[in-house]
Amino acid sequence: TLMTKITLDIHKFPCLNDNYGYLVHEPVSGKTAAIDTPDAEKYLAEADRKGWTVTHILNTHWHPDHAGGNLRIKEVTGCTIYGPAGEAEKIPGIDVKLSEGDIVEFGRTNARVMDVPGHTLGHIAYHFSDQDVAFVGDAVFALGCGRVFEGTMEMMWNSLSKLKALPSETQLYCAHEYTQANARFAVTVDPQNKALTDYALWIDERRAEGLPTVPTRLDKELATNPFLRADDPVLQAAMGHPGNTVETFAEIRGRKDRF
Ligand code: ZN
Ligand code: FE
Known about the structure:
Blueprint: E1 9-15, E2 19-25, E3 32-35, H1 40-50, E4 56-58, H2 64-67, H3 70-77, E5 80-84, E6 96-98, E7 103-106, E8 109-115, E9 124-128, E10 133-137, E11 140-141, E12 144-145, H4 153-164, E13 171-174, H5 179-189, H6 194-208, E14 216-217, H7 218-224, H8 233-238, H9 245-258
Parallel strand pairs: 3-4, 4-5, 5-6, 10-13
Antiparallel strand pairs: 1-2, 2-3, 7-8, 8-9, 9-10, 11-12, 13-14
The chain binds zinc ion and fe (iii) ion.
Fe (iii) ion binds next to helix 2.
């Protein structure tokens, strides 16, 4: 018999100052994944409220606002912790070390692991291809990307290029609500981009009502996010690096860091 396609139930809630918490529930098996663990007590309370028990933690990278709640959630639920092989020694309680191409079985669906280093050297993303969903941590944000703390600009651009190649209808679940500040910067580097200025207006309306701007869709970001558009000749010329994608990316990242 054909198995009918399931739809993941993704519960989003604010954590800490500007992080998003995500609990992902697979309704047939009942499995529930915490995507990163910025705040253990918040995650446990939200899971309780939904009647779910956390079975998996899927970490994207080692920063405390992503893995800081691991041990407490594992202590309460006995869940299995999955995280990046490339920085496993910094992931509290890690059980399963993941890298590019690994598959995380999750009830009726699964996630394919992508190595997306740059923000940290081991950063990974989780692509649920049959759901058109990717959890990207701090690799890419709506109209932004993560600061390049540990890797090189070229490494970060290569990681963003892999995310750019996902199906364009993919919903990107990033880890922070940074969109409005990102928009203020983006319009300074790409002021003639009508799709961007329209998006910026929409963002201001959403935020004025206290509404989230995350997740975002990849096709929208491809048209507007300057960090994903460093290969665009118009942006390359405007940044003073015609024909050079990595230099253009580095210029945009540097300007944002000083903005
Ligand atoms: Zn981070
Ligand atoms: Fe973060």
